[in-house]
Amino acid sequence: MATAKEKKEEVKASLKILRAELRKMHLGVTEELALPEPTEVKKLMTQMEELLVVIEPKSSRKAKK
Asked: Taken in order 42, 48, 54, 59, is the CA torsion positive or negative?
């Protein structure tokens, strides 16, 4: 099982990647007036959901379902 420090590093790395992807997507929308591909949006949503699994305690996830 991952320690708190390892989890923190994993979350930071994931957030850094997500931020970069979202920044690229935002620039495409604002500067090029082009909507992102649906697959790109789904990919980012999946990554965010995976991040939530790491961040949220198991008891909290059960309560939301």
From this structure: negative
